[in-house]
Amino acid sequence: xxxxxxxxxxxxxxxxxxxxxxxGSKDFRELVSEIANLMVYEATRDLPLVDVEIETxxxxxxxKTLSGRKLALVPILRAGLGMLGGIERLVPAAKxxxxxxxxxxxxxxxxxxFCKMPLDLTEREIFLLDPMLATGHSAVAxxxxxxxxxxxxxxxRFLCLVAAPEGIELLEKTYPExxxxxxxxxxxxxxxxxxxxxxxxxGDRIFGTL
Length: 210
Ligand code: URA
Fold this sequence. Notes:
15 strands; alpha/beta; 6 helices
């Protein structure tokens, strides 16, 4: 598995604002969207291009156009929704699937409660979105849900804003072929499952449900 750290100065600056506990919900939401936008710019760097003949108002020329498979964005509910707007702005033709999971109180493992995917999911490159990669259990379950629907692991990119080493390790062990994009690998998880230093509960801060 490859972990790609997006260390662009604009991204790192915005992530610091995001981490700051004084950042309110409106700014937090805007920052998540902006960072996701910049992340997908990097995460689409390897999309294939093909030459195309066009005519400008001045002359005929050959330009480049995207030639590969179409894209699908799959936010993990609910915090993943915060990343959607910023990405959609860059790839407006992408279709959108949703995966919802809750945590079983006994096993502490995620259970899928909702999954609605585009019909042509298996023909698309998939960007799986969750701002926080903490224990990695939801990410593993979300990838499993995609694989169960016929998606190939090579077609999935996982985008998170902040990752814990524990989550990276679990994803790496379970799906060695998966590519993860993140802006930071933080220090550790605390005993409540929060990433340290992290940024708190991403869903609560995005939706103002603190
Ligand atoms: N989910 C969050 O929103 N924050 C964390 O720190 C861990 C999981």
